[in-house]
Amino acid sequence: xxxxxxxxxxxxxxxxxxxxxxxxxxxxxxxxxxxxxxxxxxxxxxxxxxxxxxxxxxxxxxxxxxxxxxxxxxxxxxxxxxxxxxxxxxxxxxxxxxxxxxxxxxxxxxxxxxxxxxxxxxxxxxxxxxxxxxxxxxxxxxxxxxxxxxxxxxxxxxxxxxxxxxxxxxxx
Length: 172
What we know:
Layout: E1 3-6, H1 13-25, E2 30-31, E3 35-36, H2 43-52, E4 66-73, E5 78-86, H3 91-96, E6 99-103, H4 112-126, E7 131-137, H5 141-149, E8 153-160, E9 163-171
Antiparallel strand pairs: 1-4, 2-3, 4-5, 5-6, 7-9, 8-9
């Protein structure tokens, strides 16, 4: 794969809005739980929030230190996906995952999510994390494949809002 993980910036605004709009046009209102079209959050507000999330000094008291990246294809600078790494290891985060990722609808099933997770594992190792927990709905078979392709080990399952959620662990 020929992608790079790039932190959000004001310079990416137009490309990010185009990326988000593709999800919305596809009937998907949530993007990796970071952008909810129903919230009507501006790009600038979102950028401030995710930038603040990167430091213990500035992260919201009701959230955890989180790194957000866009996966950008080097050949054409197109945003292919977005991924998050939550640094907390508390039980709630373990259940709901330290990692989130999305691939834009037009670029799915091309191996990008697997590569994004592989690259995020490197970031986690650099942050001296020892393991990652990733949760996924039982019905999300493509994401389960991404996780297992990156050596994810099934840990447990639980029910959440009438859906079965699987939790996987990746040892770093």
